[in-house]
Amino acid sequence: MSPLLLIISILLPVAGGFLILPFRFTDSRKMAVYCEIIAVLTTVLVWTALIAVRREPLTVYSFTHGFSITFRADGMGSLFAGMVSLMWPLVLLYAFDYMRESRRQHVFFAFYVMTYGVALGVAFAANMITLYVFYEMLTLVTIPLVTHYGDRESSYAGRKYAAYTIGGASLAFFAVILTTVWGDAGRFVYGGSLGEECVPWLMKTAFLLGFFGFGAKAAVFPLFDWLPTASVAPTPVTALLHAVAVVNTGVFAVTRMTWYVIGPEMLSGTAVQTVCLAASVFSLVFAAVMALREKHFKRRLAFSTMSNLSYMLFGVLLLIPEGLAGGLAHMLFHGIIKMSLFLCAGAFMHMTGNSYVYEVNGAGRRMPVTFVCYTLGGLSLTGIPLFCGFISKWQLLTAGVTAGTTAGYAGTAALIAAAFLCAMYTLTVSARAFFPPAGTDRYAAPGPGGRRAGEAGPLMLAPILIFSVLNVVLGIFPGPVMDFIRRIAEGLI
Amino acid sequence: MLILLVILPFIGALAAAAAARKSGRAADICMNVTAAAVFALSLALPGHDFGFRIPGVLASGLALKTDGFRSVYAVITAFMWLGTSLFSPEYFRHEQEHLGRYRFFVLVTLGATEGVMLSADLMTAFVFFEILSFTSFTWVIHEETAEAVRAGYTYLFIAVIGGLVLFMGLLLLNTSAGTLAFGELAEAVAELPGGSASPAIFAAGICILIGFGAKAGMFPVHVWLPKAHPVAPSPASALLSGILTKVGIYGILMTALAVFRGNTRFGLIVFVLGEITMSLGAVLALFSVNLKRTLACSSMSQIGFILTGISMTVLAGAHEEAAVTALSGVMLHMVNHSLIKLVLFMAAGVVLMNAHALTLDEIRGFGRRKPLLKAAFALGALGISGVPLFSGYISKTLLHEGIVETAEEVAGLHGLLHAGEWVFLVSGGITFAYMLKLFIAIFLEKNSDPSRQAVYDGQSGYMNALSGSVIFGSSLLMAVLGQPAVMTRLAALMTGESSILEFRAFTPGNLKGGMISLTIGAALYLLVVRRILLRRGSYVNLWPRGLDLEDRVMRPLLVRVLPGIFGFIASIFGENRILRPLCRFLFPGVFGSVASVFGENRVLRPVCRFLLLAASVVGRALEVSTDSLIALLRKTVVRERKGIAPAGRKPGFFVELREGTREAAEPIIQNFSFAMLMTCIGIVLILGVLVLSVLR
Q1: Do B578 and A177 touch (CB under 8 A)?
Q2: Which of A128, B7, B164, B475 could lock onto B343 through a cystine, CB 3.0 to 4.6 A?
Q3: Is B134 within 8 Å of A384 when comparing Cβ atoms?
Q4: Structure confidence by residue, pLDDT tens digits, A326-335
Q5: Given pLDDT bands bounded at 50, 70 and 90, which one contains residue A98?
Q6: Are A215 and A284 contained in the same domain?
Q7: B504 CB burial (10 A radius; 0-12, 13-18, 19+)
Q8: Of the residues A239, A267, A295, which one is the last residue of a structural domain?
Q9: pLDDT tens for residues A431-442?
Q10: Domain residues of chain B, as ranges?
Q11: How many structural domains is chain A composed of?
Q12: CA A481, CA A331: separation in Å to the nearest integer?
């Protein structure tokens, strides 16, 4: 089959989503069916492409000097695309239920579906320019999603989000141009594609700027502040975009730049590597502590996301294949875990109208399925065996110790400390939900209007359950997935 | 069969949960049947050596095996569960709430505990260890009182810290030694440069010690133990104290045996921690005036005895005889302590469910007219105090003998070990003192409130036949295990060394050690308990409230100090302090001054004026023509209507398109200009650097 499939799978959701804008559906059920069909169709296309297409590049448009828009489904892109395409149709189901009473639904779903295509564009990009274009587009199409509620708070969050990520991307633009000029047009080749004549100090500067620039989307310290603020967005957005798809493109871009353009040899052992490692190690502990301090349920999870994104960057920046494998594995597994956590938090907020951690007391009794899934997610995120978080953490920490450098050991210790904090900020919520201290159970009596909080509807529960099952199954049988990831990390695919 | 021992309780747990929907009785039967089945199965294990492996699961597969020690502990585990689950229907008679949860997690923990006890590598042990850490949390928090919730949190966090530190230790060991199988570790470590003394292995050992030690109740990670054991329901306390602490010991023991034999540094660390745990636990128990808290602190103290024994096994190293003596002492004392605490905590459960109180003043005189309970408690007390002919005597003597022999064999440690020996004897004495305190208060003295005493004396059906026979039956084991012939055979089976069969327990030398302890104990009872604790006929809590490691150090550190530091950093690097001033400076300041130079007043405005003049001429001409064109289009294609659209009529397609797009695109367009600005800055920067690099 021709690699054209890649382009169709990118264009289908973009076009399909765009069409919702003029053809406002009068019936939101019809719109739901339409969106779901597009999403499922795209997912099928993506998986067909991943399985059937030979790994050859397809150039769509070529500027001068080898600057071109090119797509290719290599191992790492496939991993990202596979992950994203697995999640989108599921979270859409959740979103239909969650957004049922919201106004301007068609705008929301139009952009939500369009984002799917743009995220796939990032995944399949075969060089820095293409990556950069889709990276910027991703920021732009997600702004209306953040500002969806339209109140002061959301529009502030939207502005802040744009300022941080676009500002960051402008730093990264520097790296993109320099590597494109000196390298093989910024083409992604495992181990780096820079030419002989490149200037090392310039490349290292470019890397530094690129790291912090793309890192802004991965909420690396110091450009992290937008992520907690952006959690005012509707839960399907905070879950899928600000825990997985969008923020992971930050990590994805840094990984591409590190491993596929500049290459580990040039960076290994340099001060640049140390600075970037230090930034990610610091932000992973920092974010964990901030999450513990935070009382707002979703902001707490947002800080947790920031912490986990830095785990991935830490793994990637160790510049050894084990580390890359750990980072990629954590990208996948954290995605699954954080989805279930956010969806559970969203279900709680949706069903009870409360959004603070201390308001959870006793909710586990009324919503047992939701909070059991939440607890499983929390355990997994902490790194308890039987859950998939353990597998990636084991891989990451093994890499940290194998690297044998001071930064490696420091990072390993920091990861352990952050894991402890993680247990504190996730499991205290579970403990509150199931074992409220005597007399603080908020949901024992019927609320105002005689309505008792209860389990969310099947459309919301189904994705939660599926992600929880994935969490456990991948935790117990990680073999095939980890083999695939290790092969990517060793440059075999 | 090994896997069946592990899986069966999990199935039983699900069955019990399903049965609980029908009736509590069915679920109880389900629980008892499962425990009995596991017990029956485990009985087939001793005397067999075999292994079992499931590859491809988790990070590196699961491996189980059985040998002397493992099989005996599998039996003890199953026995403990059988005993407590037979007792629990009566104990929980009046509080059915959350009982379904309790049954489920008790059975899951049984499976996990069997998993640890039968594990053939550290990874398997770790996996099951984590499971039981979290499932046993539900026991601690079961009552859901404020106290239980607080103790539960402490337990949970120590368990999580322990688990993660252990994780770190395993990781270090795995990356440096390349294996985690107990059978292969010794060889793999010996091949490394520096052996077990190399920094990575040593660090791994310390991590593993702390990780498993947290579950065992080792100082300084013992803080959860005196709080969690008393608040849990009594059958669960018996398991927490009798078995779950042993899970920690199991891990430390196996690692020490596989990796650290003969490593003096590691041995001394375990020795010092063991001695502190032993004496601290004993002192805490002596000063406690609460029945279950005394028993909990006693557990901590006994764990200290066992740790001291482990350290002797490590220190003795190649000196075979001393090592075997100490190891036998360790394994036998583990068995003894498990069974003793089973009896004592179940007896405490009987007290609690009848008297509804635990402080010594309130339960004083409870057992005066209850001979069966009195006998069972007395047997347990005799066993743990190390009175000759009862179970604890032989294991304590072996531990003591281990210290003495090691002190003789290992050069340079004589003084330290001799001091340790005295700490050991005094701690043994304190054990006797606090058990005397409990026994005399509950079973001999009269309550200071006569009406209460009358109620106690009148209680006839204070426990049913089943509970009574379980408690009394297991207490009889104290006497059986007091026989040297039984004990040495058990030791030979567990250690796999037949030389221990020649051990003689009742030589004058050995009896002397025991007698010294008992004398010290009796003296301490008279001095401390009768003179200091008893004030005007009632037991007073003299332990200073402020002296609490958890409240003074650990909680403040986690709750205040750490978040404070990071919060401070966050407030500095948050946007308000740095980014916003920067942007203010950059945009209005720098760009503003640039703009005011090149801005409209000086340059652009004159140019614009000219351009506008020219444009307006052209524009006017274009305007007329385009206006008419647009007007035409509006009438024909777009069909836009001014004012309110008539009801029931949809606006035209293109109006929809325009409005929808405008609405949606507005935020994008707003930010797009910002993006362009940033890109421009990027381009300027690049140009600058390019110029720079050319100049170089």
Answers
A1: no
A2: B475
A3: yes
A4: 999 999 999 9
A5: confident
A6: no
A7: exposed
A8: A267
A9: 888 888 777 777
A10: 278-505, 553-637+665-695
A11: 2
A12: 12
